[in-house]
Amino acid sequence: MTRSLRGRLFIGLTAIILLAGLASAMLTYRWAFDEAIEMQDSILIQIARLAQDGSFSHLSGRTLGGVDENAQVWVLELGKFPQGSADDRQLWGFKDGLHVATRNGESMRMALGTRADGARLVVAQPTAIRDETARGMALRTLFPIAALIPCLMLVTALVIARSLRPMVRLASDLDTRRADDMTSLSLAGTPSELHPFIASINGLLKRMQLMLDQQRRFVADAAHELRSPITALSLQAENLNPVDLPEAAQARVAALKQGIHRTKHLLEQLLALARHEARSAGHGDMPVVALDQVSKEVVADLLPQSLNSGIDLGFQIVEPLAVRGEPIMLAAMIRNLVDNALRFTPYGGRIDLGVYGQDGAATLQIEDSGPGIAPDDMDRIFEPFFRGQCPEAEGTGLGLSIVKRIVDGLGGSIVLENIAGAGRSGLRVIVKLSLAPKPVPTKGANA
User: Fold this and answer.
1) I need a surface site. Which of 32, 214, 237, 313 has the fewest CB within 10 A?
2) Crossing angle for the helix pair 291-308 and 327-344, nearest 10 degrees?
3) Do 278 and 322 fall within a single domain?
4) Considering the domain boundaries, does residue 151 fall inside one?
5) Are both 346 and 369 inside the same structural domain?
6) Do both 263 and 368 map to the same domain?
7) Which of these, 295, 290, 293, 329, lies nearest to 408 by C-alpha position?
8) Whole-model pTM over 0.85
9) What would the pLDDT profile of 318-373 be if each residue is shown by its tens digit?
């Protein structure tokens, strides 16, 4: 049995229409058949009365002309006393009026009458002809019903589709929403029967928004509270540099510093994620930011790190482009992408950036000469804390997840693809954002 509400309504209403149409057809056929028989009886009576007023002896035993040629109406003069065939003599046993009798082996409907002089006559018609005529008239009355049933089914389907259209629009609205869009559904243009359902959904969205806000605050507060002790531990570890320690202790201190550095980097990523989600939850138009300027500032900040790692970091092309977004979040997006490239590019490699317009969009492209991403990891690379097949590499697994959320929040797209070529490998990242109508330079967009 179908689980579709539309299917159930259509099947149920169609069954009602068919049953009602069938019952109406049977009643109409029976009524029309009886009416046709009564009309033919009335015609026989009228002919019999006319025959009583004049002599129809010249037509006796013949089909009456001037009537329907297929009607086969007979006028028979019986005379003033029983005579003729046995069938004719038996008619004297009937009173004047309508009767059914057999004549010459055929069932006949007869109207008997008596003139003033006592002579009797009969007007007869075969019952088979009468029934055939009545059936034809009754069947013709069924044509409107037969034409009405499919029309009603079509109208029913249209009415059901139109009635359920608000539900389809509601489902489409929910399907096209971003995962973090918790705005209430509008009741405008929806039938009153859906209002309790929409109210329940809105209540659920409010509870989910409250839960997400609490989660964001917890992450932000926890990361913020942990920064101070981590910073203190980092300072204490740095203070051990001038101390003359045994070789084994120095190795342990180095491992401690690396762990503190990774923990500090994780806290910074968590704070960046919390800031982005807090800003995304707000309303209002975002400012216009010069994407090329933000990119240059991020590259300038990371240039010393690239030099220390022996990596050639720079731009292949830079065009003045503007997009809408928070400067801090755009800087965090670019920084995470470049930092990810620096982490996996080997010594002596290179990282090339490009900022240019293409197909009506602002495009940020970053190419490195690292190993790329394993094909099995591509589908999960944007998941939080997913580090792929290189779990031993430095990183938290949050960088690309934050980038994806920022890009989605700006209504853009991001594509990662491995670079394949003769003697070449690496990863290409392409971010596309909508161009802003009026470029406005920004200042101090460092994250």
Assistant:
1) 214
2) 30
3) no
4) no
5) yes
6) no
7) 329
8) no
9) 999 999 988 888 888 998 899 889 988 999 999 999 999 998 899 999 999 988 88
Same domain (yes/no): 279, 372: no
Statement to judge: residues 278 and 329 lie in one domain:
no
Q: Give the number of domains in the chain.
A: 3
In this structure, which amino acid lies at residue 181? D
Report the C-alpha gap between 319 and 354 in whole angstroms: 8
Tell me how far CA of residue 208 lies from CA of 76, 182, 184, 204, 213, in angstroms.
Answer: 96, 8, 11, 6, 8
Domain end residue (candidates: 219, 251, 283): 283
In a domain, 155, yes or no: no
pLDDT, one tens digit per residue, over 123-153 is: 888 999 889 888 988 898 888 888 888 999 8
Domain of residue 320, residue span: 285-434
Residues 296 and 278 both lie in one domain:
no
Q: Are residues 74 and 85 in the same domain?
A: yes
CB distance 115 to 121 below 8 Å: yes
